[in-house]
């Protein structure tokens, strides 16, 4: 078991009031306990893989009963911040989530709103070019090397296995992650599954990737890497925007009004 982490000071349940002085609902004790533990994760006092202190220690620190403590842990579990193995003696373990925690609800909201795949592809064109510019201007050689490896080894494997939508999608997402912008990374992660499914759907139903299409794609990727390694942020951004616009036009041809829900299944 990981060593116990020092606990933050206890927060009292009666200190909550609105700025106008009007009474508001006081949080339940379990919510306050969950909030304190949540803040410890956010602040890095509890890291991914750490175990929460044992129940006895937590109950004594917060001055709460076992049912209240367990309710607090269930709150964190519902937020995907902790993982609880039933029957285990090790207790709750911190699991810091990635973009996938919001991807599923976001996808559902897009389906319910009647959003089209064109909506999603347009949003993607607004996200990735900026990430490309940030990455280029960072001059991060290790990041460039990683992307080059994906282009020489991972992406081509998709053509051999019929998984080009997945391998190219992973390249796009990783490129945004390497930009270092957390907000762009989360948004790209939210859209990842939808864009990958759409690309696979389009390749199957509308436009299978020919050898000439593949060669054109790889030339565009290599041109991007050349621009990034040269430090030309403006040029890399412009190239990637054009690349995404061209890909969108090709993949959406005849499918402009297809809904997200029709692709997600």
Automatic annotation (TrEMBL):
Residues 1-23 are annotated as: Disordered. SUPFAM superfamilies: GntR ligand-binding domain-like (SSF48008), Winged helix' DNA-binding domain (SSF46785). It holds the Pfam family FCD. Residues 27-97 form the HTH gntR-type domain. GO terms for molecular function: DNA binding; DNA-binding transcription factor activity. InterPro entries: GntR_C (IPR011711), TF_FadR/GntR_C (IPR008920), Tscrpt_reg_HTH_GntR (IPR000524), WH-like_DNA-bd_sf (IPR036388), WH_DNA-bd_sf (IPR036390). It comes from the Bacteria. The keyword tRNA-binding does not apply. Keywords: DNA-binding, Transcription, Transcription regulation. This is GntR family transcriptional regulator. It comes from Mycolicibacterium cosmeticum.
